Amino acid sequence: MNKFSKAIKALGLIIRYPYLLNHIIDNESVWAKYVSKKYNLPNGLPLVAITDLFPDFNETVNPYAYLDGATLPIDIALLKAIASKYKVNNYFEIGTWRGESVANVADIVSDCFSLNLPDNEIYELGKSDDYVKMHRVFSTGLKNVKHLEGNSLYFDFTAYLHQFDMVFIDGDHHYESLVKDTKTAFKLIKDESKIIVWHDYALEPETVRWSVMAGILDACPPEKRGNLYHISNTLCAVYINEKITSEWLKIDTKPKHYFEIMIKSQNFKSS
Fold first, then answer.
1. How far is CA 210 from CA 189, 217, 264, in A?
2. In Å, what is the CA distance from 11 to each residue of 5, 8, 117?
3. Tens digits of per-residue pLDDT, 56-102?
4. Structural domains for the chain
5. Cβ distance 105 to 99 under 8 Å?
């Protein structure tokens, strides 16, 4: 079948089944070409070695469940390291899930806010009762954590504008949501010297998630795009208003450093 015939067949399938267009639009290779052409970033964001940003990187992650959908331990450790180094007092996150990230940050930061979908909207997505009850399991009851309910696409952030030293985005990772959440994050931070962290910028520490990167870049104020970085060994991108030594991502290279991990189980306290 020649290219013309394939194109006609593909067009016919899309006309008959319009939802197939979503598979084309969401394809990571399409987003990679989009980012490369629009921003000339074929290798992703500049990569900052985590040990350059934190020469004495040494964090304890607790609690952590090691269950599906969890943020990587090193990503949570990164949040804590940023909060410590930059003396974060006010933290806002979009996307609570089990509450592991905000519970860890709450050890360091005095005032934490976490926004998540209301339980009824999660039920409307067809999720089970057990799934809904899993939300906030680690952060409920923490005195310095305020849980907010709402969809970040429509939530009224007016009362929270320009209030935070650090914002963590870990909600819906579709392009449209990333654009909205990123624009919101730049309004939530107190000023341009404060920090934004995006989770799942990468699928793996050495594999860019191009659709997420596109959403970040398209929503980021143009004058601030030069302060976007990927932190090595993590799935996270950050906005930090300072020039940091960086390089371009190269996969399958010999590690420059390694990490020591201690794993200790704890019984969950009965409620």
1. 25, 10, 35
2. 10, 5, 37
3. 999 999 999 999 988 999 999 999 999 999 999 999 999 999 999 99
4. 37-239 (3.40.50.150)
5. no
Cβ-proximal residues to 172 (8 Å cutoff; 6+ apart), any chain: 95, 152, 153, 178, 181
Strands 237-239 and 228-231: antiparallel
- At position 239, the amino acid (one-letter code) is Y
Cα torsion angle, 52, 54, 56, 58, sign: negative
Statement: residue 20 has pLDDT above 50? no
Q: Identify the CA nearest to 268 among candidates 11, 67, 19, 51.
A: 67
Helix residue ranges, H only, the chain: 3-16, 20-25, 28-39, 50-53, 73-85, 100-105, 119-124, 129-134, 175-188, 210-219
CA pair distance 85, 28, nearest whole angstrom:
34
Q: Is the pLDDT of residue 18 over 70?
A: no
What count of residues does the chain have? 271
- Give the pair of three-digit tokens for residue 138: 């680690």
- Cα–Cα dist 136/97, whole Å: 6
Q: What is the DSSP letter of 268?
A: P
Its pTM stands at: 0.91
